[in-house]
């Protein structure tokens, strides 16, 4: 059977599966806590599935693969190391996160640091970066679908993910989790199948060992210049901190039924994510050894082309895994962006107060769904706007996340409450100037900005012993 | 509720099933048509190749013939039923149609259609969900409204522009019903109150009568006893006895006062309505209560918004009414923290709503207000939140206001409470002319 029939059948089956399994509807008794966090009643299994599915974005699969294919172990060192380091941070913040009964991370910041302006500022940043981040998912999906169905990577291919994510996100967190369970299984199956079937003479441990012994010097990390080494460290650092504080993952820990479940999730996830990275690394290394001349194309297209060396069934699973990664990450980000916009940035006055009033909640959630549609539409339009490549968009997003959340989550003792808003304003402004005006790579500018944040806090503590006496403007204190 | 299947779910699944069926049907019909056309084209092509090969009488390589036939044909296996036989020189080549190749060819040709089909499917399902939402949500809202009313709460279900006309009308009717129900509840409350008052009146009337007579007798006996003791002389221990007799007398007087108040409530004195200057009550009010209020740190403010207002009222009853309202306001401050400034404002003027018909007498305070859940009971006799109160003051005020053809309204919030007594103006030419210009 031709590959096209495989792809068409698989794509159709995936569509039907998402439609039926997600079962999205606007339940009457839903509230903002069920919409954003599934009423904090998610089991560890579901949370682990959604955690890992959200983790595996096309950037993790495609961006990393192609970087690895071209530059060898440098990619592994900078990206996988960074991501896995970030993942290891989570157990340390579970308790801190769950102490406050919040629905969003910007709200967590407000409740912890007593400043509503910090919440608004971070929410605004989240809307910006998640819209940007969505573009990655939409683009990757469009390219894979265009490759699978042999159609131009235009509006039609991309619009499918638009409908997919609207459908899954409209149902709120519970609906996102249901689709993520399917997506997680598909990602695991696809990447494992890809790694297993990529060996030209069939998979054996010996053949796998031979493939992993790097005969090609270009792939090895040896001979890396000190400048390049610094660059790799900077990327690892920024990506690690970016994922460690990313609300995509922290809200999943908030949504767990119990603290114990949240710990289980943080303990299990590294194994699943690690397995996927091992498989994808193996797949790419074998591809590099056996098929080194794939050509210089767009990242996702290069990845899709590598799949031609797989049997049809495995290739289909692998490409569906990329689609699943795009959908799972996109709906999670869309929900978070809508939450930041409607709950943190512009909360409806008429919907304030009692969460048990179904009329208010109905109106509030309808506005959320309109926001979801608007944000997805903007991201869809941005797909054609000529933005930078996956890795660059990822770097911008992750560094912004790290700037907003690193100190509040991991080093709260350094923070001077009354100053946090101003320090974050200055930090974000600096980062934007470095990246968009000076053209400096985000991962180079981020350590400077973080150091500046720390320096301001430390200097303040050095000159003013009391945390709460420093106010730039009268009446702008943390206790307002 | 045993049946958990909702209309929304049912509609969603019906619409989804319809959408999937329609997409499947359309795609199936189109693919079947393509398959038939492709088969015809394959057979036509096979016939052309056969004609071409057989006409040349020369033997050609099998691969060349296979190439000309295309992937839709393959050589028949031994024992397989042949569809096309081509005489190639002295040998016969037997071919059959290769269905997977035909299907692959169709898939390639129709891939856009399949993609559009999938787009249509997701869109149709999303539209199905929206239609179910739009059609069933008003019913859900009404069901919620009914439940709330059953719990004794007043609700108004909001109307939305996007709502279909029928639901609009239904919701409108519901809101009207809820509003009428609320009015009916108010009427019921009034009726119930009147019933209670009547029963209470009868009981109190008898009881007060039975108590008052012995009290009068006891008073006489105490007075006699006092005279006796006085005659014995203070130096024989009579001084201490006199003190005790005085205490006893005072207690009897207090008891008599309570009984008198009860009787005033159940058998109020006849109200004699006559033209009465409303201004007259203000100096009396100031002299009576200013010092009493000042002792408790309350500022009593008297405001006159119009001069020479004549109302149809009973002067004594008017004073009693004002006295009860001011005492009530003074007592309202008992639970207020000392740092808050305390103020009672007594105002007379014309009723802004009916300046030619009614005068207004209001007493307001900036106390803690009356809790919303007990506001409807404050005019009930014996309803009080104070340990030492009789709970008769405000019910007497209401009775007096009713007796003078006036109306008594109360408005209370956390900022304070205001009582407004609206009284009919005395219809004299001078009165109406003067007042209308001031109003």
Which labels suit this protein?
heterodimer; A: about 475 residues; mainly alpha; Sodium/glucose cotransporter; 20 helices; globular; disordered C terminus; B: about 450 residues; Helix Hairpins; Heat Shock Protein 90; 3 domains; 5-stranded mixed sheet; about 60% helix
Explain how this protein is built.
The complex is a heterodimer of chains A (480) and B (439). Chain A has 480 residues and is an all-alpha fold. Chain A folds into two domains: 3-389, Up-down Bundle (Sodium/glucose cotransporter), CATH 1.20.1730; 411-480, no CATH class. In chain A, 74% of the residues lie in helices and 0% in strands. Chain A is built from 20 helices and no strands. Chain A has helices spanning 3-22, 32-37, 44-55, 58-71, 73-89, 94-99, 105-113, 116-149, 155-170, 172-197, 205-212, 226-244, 247-254, 259-290, 299-306, 312-345, 358-382, 390-410, 420-437, 442-463. In chain A, helix 9 runs antiparallel to helix 17. The longest helix of chain A is centred in the N-terminal third of the chain and has 34 residues, at 116-149. Chain A starts with a helix and ends in a 17-residue tail after the last helix. Mean pLDDT of chain A is 84; it is low at 467-480. Chain B is an alpha+beta fold. Chain B folds into three domains: 7-141, no CATH class; 161-267, Helix Hairpins (Orthogonal Bundle), CATH 1.10.287; 274-438, Heat Shock Protein 90. In chain B, 59% of the residues lie in helices and 14% in strands. Chain B has helices at residues 7-56, 62-69, 99-109, 111-150, 165-232, 238-266, 281-295, 315-332, 393-403, 429-438, and strands spanning 73-75, 84-88, 91-97, 274-277, 298-304, 310-313, 342-350, 358-365, 407-413, 416-424. In chain B, strands 5-7-8-10-9 form a five-stranded mixed beta sheet. In chain B, strands 1-3-2 form a three-stranded antiparallel beta sheet. In chain B, helix 7 (281-295) runs parallel beside helix 8 (315-332). The model of chain B is unreliable at 433-439 (pLDDT under 50). The chains are: A mainly alpha (480), B alpha+beta (439). Chain A binds chain B through residues 1-2, 4-5, 8, 11-12, 15-16, 19, 24-26, 28, 149-151, 156-157, 159-160, 163-164, 166-167, 170, 358-359, 362, and chain B through 8-9, 12, 16, 20, 100, 103-104, 107-108, 111-112, 114-116, 118-119, 121-123, 125-126, 129, 132-133, 137, 140-141, 144, 157-158.
